[in-house]
Amino acid sequence: MDWNTRVAAWEDVAASPAFQRLADRVLTSAEPSPDDRVVDLGAGTGLLTFRIAPLVHDVIAIDAAPAMVDYVTEATRDAGIDNVQAAVSDLRALALPDASRTLAISNYAYHHLDHEGKLTALHELYRVLAPGGRVSICDMMFALSLRPRDRRIIFDKVRLMARRGPAGVMRILRNAGRVATGTWEHPERPEVWAELLTETGFADIASFELTNEAGLVVARRPA
Fold first, then answer.
1. DSSP code of 43?
2. Which fold, 3-142+187-220?
3. pTM listed for this prediction
4. Beta-carbon count within 10 A of 222 CB
5. CA separation, residue 95 to residues 14, 35, 89 (Å)
């Protein structure tokens, strides 16, 4: 998917009540302070960035899509926000110095990476966080399995798409094809996220199931 062509569409998604509630959960769990140096990972059009900026020392908004970064840059300039910097970067190779950030936040970015990609990205995140730095990540967190929650999420998604008629049925078929070829998104269950964070070296890890397919994990780099 070319996210450079989806800026307006993603801004509409970010403005939805569902995503606003997810942003609330991320920021509440992050417990930002005026001294925090924040990195927003997969910032998109800045849903988290703009809400946390008044509460912290500064924010670096990271996204792989240059168009998203341009949007955040222009929006911060237009709003007169002077403590936000936006930069193009892959989550697996962050263009940030070691131990330079005290808080990392993210909303719906990591499911675009497969399991090994997430592990690489978390190692990078560990590197750029200062000792004692905190993590608050919200993402699509379920699996294509027969576990009760996973089964309910998948059923609800299929039912919602089917209600849209022929276009919805075609989307179901396209997604089924992407699953079969391994090109669909790569969500992980909250407990798998906890395992990834543990393997990376993080501590004080907690994971939570949120509404629909969303989940939240929080952690801390040991001091």
1. -
2. Rossmann fold (3.40.50)
3. 0.84
4. 11
5. 25, 21, 6
